[in-house]
Amino acid sequence: MRILVTGGAGFIGSALVHQLVQAGAEVLNVDKLTYAGNPASLAGVEGRANYRFLKADIADRAAMASAMASFRPDRVYHLAAESHVDRSIRGAAAFIETNIVGTFALLETARAYWSDLPKREQGRFRFLHVSTDEVYGSLGGEGLFTEKTRFDPSSPYSASKAASDHLVTAWQRTYGLPAMITNCSNNYGPRQFPEKLIPLTILNALHRRPLPVYGDGANVRDWLYVDDHARALHLVADRGRIGQRYNIGARSERTNIDVVTGICGILDRLRPAGAPHADLIRFVADRPGHDRRCAIDPALIERETGWRAQESFATGLEKTVAWYLANEAWWRPLRDHVYCGERLGVLETTG
Fold this sequence. Notes:
By secondary structure, the protein is α/β, with parallel strands linked by helices. The chain is built from 12 helices and 12 strands. The chain is 42% helix and 16% strand. The radius of gyration is 20 Å and the shape is globular.
């Protein structure tokens, strides 16, 4: 199996690349290496005979066409994206360029490559587009997102991902490209860029800095351990139906304040010198367009592929905190030179 992964130096992408390479697949990792793409996340696969890396932009159609022609993938797993809601609020242009224009360019390149394959290879080819549950918007106190939930994005990020999802669906229906889409809940785990809630909370607590919680802390997310997600993606490509959308979630709803206090409790045990870490919690002004509740119904992927989440939120969070404590060499350069934990996504006021 020859698999081209876009965004494989990112958080979810690197977890997927590790799994694929260790399983023996031939992997070409294509990544632009923006601020969130970290070559250090690929330690352990670099140098392996079945792993290659190409620094390139998915919006560069010539580069993508060359990569596909030379590597000849059986599958494309498309994860490259700008992904942080807060950054999209203050700077939407990069999200439009990568998530919409880049996905269009990759679809066109993949379509041309697939169209020229022999019939037998055409039948094996798959294009897997990895997206988010945030395209669905916000739930009330009841109910779950299903594959039939209408799109209702609230942020520039989620709007750009919704647009990319629509493009993939259109390319499958119009041109017959054998494509599938996954929409996942909030991921967490090792090697996540420290702008996201869980690693930001861990590192701020270690540095005795305030732990910001938006609004009243009651916003709910459905948390998915990154290695569980990576397993799900490969199973969808193996067993999923062309043209189908699959929601991926672990039935692990938590309020933001419960997540933060849970991290504090783990740190109180593992780093008692800083206890009680919950004293650092500070409630701050909510971000614009903050979805109140997101929760996934994963019944379809469970039924059709046999996938099940293996990590509970308790075990996954414990592993995640322990990983950051043990891997300062990974996060220290990011904290010192790329992102030091400042608040993102604050709108400037006028008048």
